[in-house]
Amino acid sequence: MLRIAILDDYQDVALTLADWALLGDDCEIVRFDRNLASEDEAAAALAGFDVLCLMRERMLLSAALIERLPALRLIVVTGARVRTIDMEAAVARGITVCHTHAGESAHATPEIAWGLILSLARSIPEEDARIRAGGWQHTVGTVLGGKTLGLVGLGKLGGRMVPIAKAFGMEVIAWSRNLTDARAAEAGARRVDKETLFREADVVSLHLILGERSRHTVSAAELGQMKQGAWLINTARGPLVDEAALIAALRQGRIKAGLDVFDIEPLPTDHPLRTMPNTVLTPHLGYVTEGAYAAFYRDTVDNIRAWRDGAPVRVLAAPKTEEGT
User: Where's the D-isomer specific 2-hydroxyacid dehydrogenase catalytic domain (predicted)?
Assistant: First the structure.
């Protein structure tokens, strides 16, 4: 019997979005609707499973945890860019790691960024809560036309932000370490230096990959350069921003923030960001769409079948005796 664990299925949809019966009758599939937050909890819950199916980077698979999962032989993670699995430890234990395609995430994440921007511009969450509580109009909104959008990162996701901004009548400026004038112009933006971007932008939106060089790209210095009343939008990764500095800036009332990502996820219930009135918060919804999930889970089933047939596909890491495409 092959034991398969589906992790972090918060919405209870994994088993409905793919045909798991294709794996055969000799499989036991168990889904977890909560995050296994500690190593001890995860080790106790997952020790008997042969296959772990991970949703993006919600689950940390450290070398220490991998050592405590003696039955584990295959890890499938949705998406190809993964920083939460110790690949060397997995390979050393004879474990294969496979990934899925990205699905429609390239469209979904910029769309949630604009949802956050529009929510801040017109106080949509606040006014929704007020009208449901029996109240009526209270806030005064801001139009986007004529404002400046500053993009920190102008790759695949950042680039999708540009035509939408133009449709609203916004000017678009951009910065990243390797951005050139030609690439910025091709995308429809104007390249500026980092200081200029934070000083001139009315809305700063982050679209970088998290790495050691990009960690805390937005520090107290950058937050201090932002205009009074400017907005910071983060749909990329929490640690791109110095969280302590952001909380301080929000407490001072200098800026507003629309955040879909955080240093710790799920966000702790007593976290100070939960009580900040000048924020709009969403629980890492950027890639969470039915189409993306369906693609993720179909590929997950396909990966398990291929691995069982001895020809694993979409391999991120594997023992030397295994090959895949």
Answer: 18-313
